[in-house]
Amino acid sequence: MSSSITAVQTCTFAQLLEAVGVSDQNAEISICSTTGLEMEIPIRYPFRSDHFSFLVVQEGAFKIKVNLTPYTVTKNEILMITPNDVRQFEEFSSDCIIKFVGFKAEYLYAAGIHKKNVDALTFFSSLLNPVLRLGNGEMENIARILDVLEHKSTLPATSDYRDDIMLNLFSGFIYELALHFRRSQSLEEIRVTRKEELVMRFLKLLPTQFRSVRSVQVYAEMLNVSPKYLSQTLKDISGKTAGDFIGEMLLLEAKILLNHPELSIAEVSNHLNFSDQFSFSNYFKKHTGKSPTLYRKS
């Protein structure tokens, strides 16, 4: 099997910035504003990234899938996406105004927050909803910080104290988010039932395990519940069983790999841990109505 095979395609920070037409940005952080009228979906296929992203919606709304879960993110909401998350942008409203904040883990570490107030980073590992809802005044505070941060990012790298000012502004942004997350957490704990939390935990686990684990029993053991309870809970909350989610993620990965013509069907089959090419072809045809070969031609 080719050692260059990857899973769902990973889009680097530089590739994403190029796709949205952003240049001359700091290599470890980028802040930019865009509107729905200017915006085309830059990358239409599902992908992972090597950076963190915050999408801050000031007006309008956009639709996106993160780890197969659909979200409509509206005015005064912030969506956080981590590098391991599989995301697929679907639609932006014509009145959508978004501030995009993308940064690598190295930039977060450089800010030193983990050394001073590690609890301020709790929301990065939260299993709850990745969408944070703010009030009008709270969004205005966030927007002011990001306006200055965006301005500083456009200055020449040789500008006096630019990098230090940006790090401090970035720290302020993270602390503001942590503050709002902490305030909302108690409400989330009330709103989110144990069943909903189990669904979120499963959907966080699935993208990291599905290539080697397809047994509902194994996922249930990882989550300390019975297979029946896991599938019934997923069905009650989402309308899909655990098997449905596993199959959907597997087929998504298969389609991405099949879109790379340099990979043979046998290589795709091996990467997805099927016993042989025949088993993979039967599975793919059963669930899509097309053989892998016919899918490539279509």
TrEMBL record:
Record flagged with keyword Transcription regulation: yes
Keyword ATP-binding in record: no
Taxonomic lineage of the native organism: Bacteria, Pseudomonadati, Bacteroidota, Sphingobacteriia, Sphingobacteriales
Keywords: DNA-binding, Transcription, Transcription regulation
One matching Pfam family: HTH_18
Protein name according to UniProt: HTH araC/xylS-type domain-containing protein
InterPro entries, A to Z: Homeodomain-like_sf (IPR009057), HTH_AraC (IPR018060)
Record-linked SUPFAM superfamilies: Homeodomain-like
Domain HTH araC/xylS-type stretches: 200-298
UniProt GO MF annotations: DNA-binding transcription factor activity; sequence-specific DNA binding
Organism: Pedobacter antarcticus 4BY
